[in-house]
Structures
1.
Amino acid sequence: MNRFIKILQPKVLISFLAATIICTVFCVEQSSAQVPPRFYWKNLNGVNAVPVIFNSLESNANPADPSHHIYPGAKIEADLMIAGYAKVFELMDRAAFVAALVPMGRVSGDVTVGGRSFSESARGFGDPMIEFGINVIGPDPIRNIPDMLRYEPGFSVDIIGDLIFPLGEYDNAQPLNIGQNRWAGRVGAPVIWQLGQWVPGKRTTLELIPSVWFFADNNDFVGLTLSTDPLFELEGHLTRDLTKDLWASFDLTYFIGGDSSLNGVKSESLDKAGVGFTLGYAINEHIQLTVGYMSTFNDNDDTELNMDRFLVSLTFGWHNLIEGMNRLGSSE
């Protein structure tokens, strides 16, 4: 009871709500088909977020391609930035969100396709993506301040859907591009399991995100047709608050499936795991900084997926209610 009395003091309440919002705003990362930890935490209806994500990647697959089509023996480098917008709202009495993102940057490397060698570099805008998610098991939507003060995720399950539009820059004479010249999509069921008490500075979660990616054919891939079977992906995150503003996560990712074929000649399917970590820090009541690293392991065979990714993101989040309370607080 004393904790809630303290929180209800105006300035403390503003700080508490702003910290809660900024710790759970969106930060999706399309280029390696992965979602950062705490992405699917719920928030106050009406929260807005603008993420700006910087990626530096090395792989034997195009880092801008979520299918992870492998080029054996290749070394491909990419520097990508992803910018977007996300909003939390209520739909059919359940918490929901929608996010839109656009990648841009450069990708380069030496690859071999169909017996032909290419030394390529591409830059520009990639394929935009939208994601929609709705909670199906878990607490009621957070409609107001009392709901936020009482909120605990417990055990929650969402249903999500992604759609990637083939609108990015694409050159059919080269295999490495920022755009992929084909539709792609994903369906998944993120699970959040709260471990222990739900107090800022002490929050712990186990998060599992099983999903399946689907890919249309690219019928103009350096004169060939590139087809990819569905790709199953399982992500796991064990997250823990270190302070009320700083949190850390241990991350695991597993891919299986996604057999690719060029003009009917199939390559090996993916069967690969990666391990990494993420640190998140609330710089102020609006801005969240996230730093992460991920690498595949047991990847000495150049016909298997190998990837190293370093990520830095800044996310600006706001809510009209908090902005109004800030204005009232500053006038006191």
2.
Amino acid sequence: MAKQNIKEIQEAIANAGHSWQASENQFFRMSDQEKDNFLGYTPGPNDEPLEVQERISAENYNAFKASLLAGNQEFTAPAQFDWRNNGGLNYVTPVKNQSSCGSCVAFGTIASVESRIKIQRGAAFNVDLSEAHLFHCIARSQGRNCSNGWWPENAMIGFRDIGVADEACYPYTPADQNCTNRCADWANRVTKISGYAKVNGISAIKEWIASKGPIEACFSVYADFYSYTSGVYKKTSNDLRGGHCVCIVGYSDALECWICKNSWGTGFGESGFFRIGYGQCGIEAQVYGANSVVGSYDINAKKVTGLWANNENRNAWAYISDIGWKKISNNNDIGFTNLVTDLATAKTVGSTVNLTIDETEMISVLYVF
């Protein structure tokens, strides 16, 4: 297919009644092979082809719209949500650049897990996990590389069963390698997830994002996407270039779009992010979320600003500054009573506290200062 010039793309956008902006940016000026190197999602052995995934997403979008018009939609999630600004706090880690290697699955997966960690441990918590470990080690062991890409479910399984080390343990470079550059103590530095779920349908994806956090999604990339600058992307090209995985960090019902964190550096789109319309390019067909991050962790020098309980046996929560609500461990009566008493005292006198949060996301240890 002959390469379009930027004017033809802009005219196609206008003729289709879309409003997104296209420009002759650094990606548009690349050769087709260079562009393709920035992708990397390959449908897995049990996945439908990209074109079928697109049709399924479009059908689900039409059903979603029909349900809205019929008044049957259950509005369990807010009409808009963005983890880059939730209550004034940013739970999304900085945009990275996969560069000339088809490792997008690793970047999309890690972006979602990094945000899950920040949601669990506080927006100020610093986390930077190793895409190189996930791709050059775990994907590599399955015969995957920069040229043939990977699929998201296997990435989630790797996170669950093996774990992923931090970036400092194995810094990313966009070239195939035999997992020889990771640190010697990598096994002691991995982060694991408790499990994962495939999330189906617009309503379910919105619900997951609003209640649990950003989520990985894969979609078909068409030639016009490389010229994207801003706005809500809707394809006008028929030149399918391949599959790509990203992280959905929010959405807007008013604009009917997903807000996505890309892995092409901050020079792409809206400072490394882009928006894409519901039902576009199969965006809802391959969506995976991490359930929770495994392991206890410490939260230090925080204030207790709220307490809540109901009539259920040993059911109480504390609101920790900069963190949010955390349930108080209810393993036994004495421990539960002591924790509630100490948290109440800290709230009353305004003391700072150090906490240990266990693997079930409950407050298990408390030190009051």
3.
Amino acid sequence: MRRLRQDLDWFVSAGLLLSVAATAATGVVADLWDLNDFWYHTVAGYVMGGFAIAHVLFNWERLVGYARFRLRSVTAPPADARAHGPAATPARTTDVGAEPAPAAGSLLRRVAISRRGLLGFAAGGLGGWAIGRGLRPAPQIAAGSDVGVVYHQWSKPGIIDALGSVANWGQFPELYKTYPDAARVALPEPIAVDGPPAAEAILARRSTRSYSAKPMTLAELSQVLALATGISADRWGNARRTAPSSGALYPIETYAVIHSVEGVERGVYHYAIRDHQLELVRAGDMRARVVDQAIEQEFLGECGAVLFLTQVLQRMRPKYQDRSYRYGLLEAGHIGENGYLAAVSLGLGACGVGAFMDDQINEMLGVDGVEEAAVYMLAVGHPA
């Protein structure tokens, strides 16, 4: 019976060690890939908990005995080792100048590597090789591939990315960008639109490249902005928006270049999402400038407004590292499609554009093009 208990105790200890390793590994995977419901991690955690309880039960007597021993050692009066200990043994002396002869085999023992040391050395070497070569081999990229292919291949997740989670990718910037000294335009409160159902709006969506001279109303612009990327809920103090965002980090900022909106001066405006207001960045007629910077697409100067989406890269880097740019572009696409459907529901037209001169557009919006850069354009207005 004693032998059986020892075997079970060993089995439980080994199982606990393995389950701890599995829980840690699956936890790293869940964190790196933002897996909110990773089944393997959940199961590994429950298994680890079961083994931990069994380990405590098997070693309960030892735990209690050691606790009692420590308690007695703390409460017992200190013993005088000098009074009750054995007499000190005088130190051995050697003749001055005498050279002690080395014991036989001492030199060999001094340079020999123990079996444990040899195994540790081998494990360390293999581990270094695996980290350097085995876990993240260089991707196979054909010569002459464009930069998109290169980035896509190098931003694929791998086990070595676990090291990136402890690297310093900087701090998260503010979630809401603001222009505190800018003149503001209050937008009407967005309302539920009595328009076509979602299925009809999706089927009716088209890219509109011909617009009438009829100006948009401020209420229409307000509705498009709110449905495209506005705040739709506030759960646990963390505002949620109409478009999904990886990790709810929201790297996309929205700027509206106003051409023809009733009651609003022409110019470049930033959409202050938290307050549902427009902040004036630059006043002036930007129609010709937008057309020139979008490779002479004339309809971009005829619509009521052009929405520009920019990506603030640092909002995602501390969490998603190299994949941040991917996720930001996905989010811009979500917002663009929301804008399309919002326009359809209001009887407006919309057209997404990706062909534009980046540096000139960034300069017009007042962003640096590095930490914040334009990635998407969406024309909105009354169709001809």
4.
Amino acid sequence: MKGFKNAIGIDVSKLTLDAYDYQNKSYQQFKNQKPGFKALINWVNKFNEDEVILCFEHTGLYSLPLAIFLSEEQLPFCMVAGLEVKRSMGIRRGKNDKADAMDISKYAFHRKGEIKTYQLPSKSLLKLKSLLGLRENMVKQKAGYLNSLKEMKRIFPETQNPVWFRSQKALIKKLTEQIKIVETEMNSIIQEDDQLKKLYELTTSIKGVGLILGISFIVYTNGFTAFNNWRAFASYSGTAPFSYRSGSSLKGKDKISHLANKRMKVLLSNAASSAILYNPEMKTYYQRRLKEGKSKMSTQNIIRNKIISRVFAVVHRGTPYIQLNRHAA
């Protein structure tokens, strides 16, 4: 990867961008909108001729407009996890936007020879990502209303407060309808994009991978470009345990990182449970492991990783998965 001579750290908030030029020790604040983006680039060019990279934390909706602008202008930038920057800086008392921008610029500058520029997903992929997040929020809301309705039914008869019960049922029904609409729209986006359609067909050729998990694979891997191999994605998804040992005194069990994508892990867990029930190959493997005295949790985690590895294999190979039931898993 190309080495950069300088780094600009940007602390992104809802309304402003706080930028710090590491080498020139210059600080400036800009508005978090297109005129501010243009002013930012003019300010950067004032001190730097070329070979400079802009670096900022991934803050979802707040950082997305800047990322889109830089991509359209074909300017190199990187987006990093806030926790990664904080860990690299060590303990610091207090907090302000200028100091955060300085920390980000220092982080990027000292890694300028190895840092990777960020490739913004396609517009179709960005739409899928936003719809996937919307669906997840609606599913959570629906689950909340269902739990509330269940508890009320357990304690009170519907005749005691009919308006409350009718309202809860109406909200559940409306959320169910809207979730279906979102899923239909996601499927339409996939069908209209040849590349996404191909990836979706490949991922869902694995038993246990349906619409939502298939789309999640595509979204979280940025179209299978963000991870070099399935093991890296397993670490990201929280299905790859890490050793917890040091010397002769500390010998803990292997643990899953708490920084993993918990939503992806839940989806993979559901897929593994489905595979154990309906995939003869996985069912045989699961039962054999239990007879050997292996734990249910570790076996389920292996199946989660088998699903990940198979998805990556079919995508890299470019052909759908072929189920060979005569072979053991």
